[in-house]
Amino acid sequence: MRTTRVISLLIFCAALVRGQAQPLLEACADGKVDAVRALLVGGANANGAGEDGETPLLAAARRGSAELIQLLLRAGADPAARRWNGETALHAAVASGQPAAVAAVLKAGVPPDGMENRRGQTALHYASAEGRVELMRLLLDAGATADAKSKSGATPLWLAAQGAHPEAIALLLAAGANPNATGPEGYSVLHVAVRSCSVGTVAPLLDAHADVQARTETGSSPLHLAIADKCLPVVERLVQAGADLSAKDAKGQTSLDIARKRHQTELVTYLDNTKKPKP
Questions:
Q1: Phi/psi of residue 162, nearest 5 degrees
Q2: Which CATH superfamily hosts domain 124-130+137-279?
């Protein structure tokens, strides 16, 4: 025990020499388990926060170290602590991408809902935006709300679609997420999905009855956006799903008008042929 206290003192002194006001915080951020253990034995404050509100527990979670998380919790670290931006240890653990770290924070009693950051984002928003399916499963199994809305209106499904993560989209739809949820500027989940130019991203939403005629605040339909992005495979899938070729945006333009204006010969030919009555 005496040796451990000596080590703790040496670490503390070395940290001060390097200008580190928070030796425990630094040791957690660096993932130094032995140093953290020694500092805690030496009396370091498990809840001592930096200027940005980062606590040792948040630093350990951001590092993705389940071992450090458990060590700090046993030493009295507050699992509900937040950074200046409202992030909790659960947000930080999800950002690390480490399932064991996320599981350790959840086990400490941190709820997957009700502790959003200042943007109104839950940990599930974080995981969905990156398509981290294993972490999403952990959060959903712990009771995370699949349709939670951030302050901008984005849901986890909206972010998964924006990031073009088909497996994450499928998981959220299976959990009951609304395929017609809208986010910033009136963009629906399908609107942001078509911007990926990936049929694999768009298809599961259409299969879940996403509204193919949905409009943004500027009157654009998913088909208008797919045309603007020159994405023929997605255009074909939208048309197969019943997209209205005659629909006009706020400028009075149809999909064919947009294709012609942008000199998209292949799309113009496809749309012309699609509009012609079959013999």
A1: -60, -35
A2: Ankyrin repeat-containing domain (1.25.40.20)
Interatomic CA distance for residues 223 and 142, integer angstroms: 37
| Cβ(112)–Cβ(144) below 8 Å | yes
Angle between helical axes of 33-41 and 66-74 (0-180°, round to 10)? 10
Show me where the domains of the chain are located.
124-130+137-279
Range 136-144, long-range pairs (CB < 8 A, 24+ positions):
136/168, 136/171, 136/172, 137/171, 138/99, 138/102, 138/103, 138/106, 139/94, 139/102, 139/106, 139/112, 140/171, 140/175, 142/106, 142/111, 142/112, 143/111, 143/112, 143/113, 144/112, 144/113
Non-local (6+) Cβ contacts of 113 within 8 A are 122, 143, 144, 145, 148
Smallest Cα–Cα separation from 139: which of 106, 175, 178, 181? 106
What is the rounded distance in angstroms from the CA atom of residue 93 to the CA atom of residue 107? 12
pTM reported for the whole predicted model? 0.89
Q: Over the stretch 176-234, which tens digit does the pLDDT of each residue have?
A: 999 999 999 999 999 999 999 999 999 999 999 999 999 999 999 999 999 999 999 99
pLDDT of res. 231:
95
- Contact, 24 vs 3, CB < 8 A? no
C-alpha separations of 175 from 129, 170, 187 in Å: 16, 9, 22
